[in-house]
Specification:
There is one protein chain. By secondary structure, this protein is α/β, with parallel strands linked by helices. It has a single domain, classed as 3-Layer(aba) Sandwich (Collagenase (Catalytic Domain)). The chain is built from five helices and four strands, in the order βαβαββααα. It has a four-stranded mixed β-sheet with strand order 1-2-4-3.
Length: 156
Amino acid sequence: MLKIDFHDETNSIDEAFVDLIERVLSFAAEKEGVAGDNELSITFVNNSQIQELNRNYRQIDQPTDVLSFPMLEEGEDELEAIDEDMPRMLGDIVISVDKANEQADDYDHSLEREFSFLALHSLLHLLGYDHEKEEDEKKMFKRQEDILNEFGLERK
């Protein structure tokens, strides 16, 4: 089971978006074979807040659409559990509401699809996917499209 803690720093996210993202990520976790109790957090911020995080963690001084902060280090399969009854923490996702709105307009698709895409993209990062190399990027982006299409959020 996937537990998601949502935090809206913008006070602008409708409960329907939260519900949709929760359903998309639970669906994706099932498709990815994520077993056991797992937890992650999603925080919605504005462009200036995500720019500060991007500058501090990636040394890129500009806003971005989404940031992922995995708890597992590269090559690690499992975090040591403090208590076997506690869920495994996958990591944190930060989404810029401003960028999501801009990109939904730019790509001419719904805000629902954009939020779902960004959240799914980050979940795949938390699960170890990457897009540093071209072959990895193709694999990751195909996986995203397959999951979104199967869920019913096709690109229009």
